[in-house]
């Protein structure tokens, strides 16, 4: 159930056919025939929204021998409509997923720049921040995302100090460095899955899940909740959204799946 990579790159808008979350096909591959779950709902379709193109300031070359390139389709925070996010690595992908589910964040701009700065030899260079995050309080954070292996020489720290010293006033209130040690990969994977499911709002399934949750007296698995609500293959997505939207409390830890334990919020 990995996130499908969007390969239209900096592409033009396109009309979405059917279910853009890639479900229930991936659901069937992962858990077997969905006929095991009784359902009062049919297939979910969404044909009314176009995917906004990549909005980063730097063109990403999809061909790279040194790292992966990812073009992920996730919701835009301000419009809630899907758009393409361009990322240079899996580390950026995971961090962006966690950023987009952070309720304190209002909007993000990936590949932000160029920021001109003076190099050690006196010449001018330019730098693109991997992410510019704007919080709801108005505070702006410029984020540099690097694996720890790229920091051992110390050259990047020298570069980022020079960037901060010459960065135009008002660009950002804070510059942050993020590595693979800054977050949990499991939480990032769960966040990416939620963003994928959030692409297709499903008021019918959400209502049935919410109604079933209100009748809960204890804890149960997501699989049991799907059975009780009779939401079938659409129930897993609805339960996943309910967890992130705090309409269900997740009790268990790890990757969210059919065996994860949930309960009614207190």
Helix-strand layout with pairing:
Blueprint: E1 14-15, H1 25-31, E2 50-51, E3 70-75, E4 82-87, H2 90-100, E5 105-118, E6 124-135, E7 140-145, H3 155-166, E8 174-178, H4 185-198, H5 203-214, E9 219-221, H6 222-229, H7 233-244, E10 249-250, E11 261-263
Parallel strand pairs: 7-8
Antiparallel strand pairs: 1-2, 3-4, 5-6, 6-7, 9-11, 10-11
Helix pairs in contact: 2-4, 4-7, 5-6, 5-7, 6-7
End-to-end separation in angstroms reads: 31 Å
Number of strands: 11
CATH architecture of one domain, by name, is: Orthogonal Bundle
Strand content: 15-25%
Tally of helical runs: 7
| Spatial strand sequence of the major β-sheet | 5-6-7-8
Rg from Cα:
21 Å
- What is the CATH top level name of one domain? Mainly Alpha
Query: How helical, in percent, are the residues?
Result: 25-40%
What structural class do the secondary elements suggest?
A: alpha+beta
Oligomer: single chain
| Dominant shape | elongated
CATH level 3 topology of one domain:
Arc Repressor Mutant, subunit A
SSE order, one letter for each helix or strand: EHEEEHEEEHEHHEHHEE
The parts where pLDDT drops under 50 for at least 5 residues are 1-18
Mean pLDDT: 85
């Amino acid at each position: 159930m990995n996130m499908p990579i969007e390969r239209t790159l900096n592409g033009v808008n396109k009309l979405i056919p059917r279910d853009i979350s890639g479900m229930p096909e991936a659901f069937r591959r992962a858990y077997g025939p969905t006929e095991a779950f009784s359902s009062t709902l049919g297939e979910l379709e969404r044909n009314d929204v176009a995917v906004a193109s990549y909005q980063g300031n730097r063109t990403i070359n999809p061909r790279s021998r040194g790292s992966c390139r990812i073009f992920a389709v996730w919701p835009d925070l301000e419009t809630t409509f899907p758009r393409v996010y361009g990322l240079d690595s899996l580390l950026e992908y995971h961090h962006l997923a966690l950023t987009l589910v952070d309720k304190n964040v209002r909007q993000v701009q990936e590949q932000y720049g160029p920021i001109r700065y003076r190099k050690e030899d006196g010449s001018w260079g330019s730098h693109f921040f991997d992410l510019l995050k704007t919080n709801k309080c108005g505070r702006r954070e410029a984020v540099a995302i690097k694996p720890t292996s790229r920091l051992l020489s110390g050259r990047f720290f020298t570069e980022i100090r020079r960037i901060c010293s010459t960065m135009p006033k008002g660009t950002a209130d804070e510059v942050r460095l993020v590595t693979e040690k800054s977050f949990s990969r499991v939480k990032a994977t769960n966040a990416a899955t939620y963003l994928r499911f959030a692409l297709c709002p499903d008021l019918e399934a959400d209502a049935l899940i919410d109604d079933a949750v209100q009748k809960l007296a204890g804890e149960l698995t997501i699989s049991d909740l799907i059975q009780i609500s009779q939401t079938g293959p659409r129930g897993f997505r609805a339960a996943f959204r309910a967890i992130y939207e705090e309409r269900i409390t997740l009790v268990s830890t790890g990757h969210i799946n059919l065996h994860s334990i949930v309960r009614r919020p207190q």
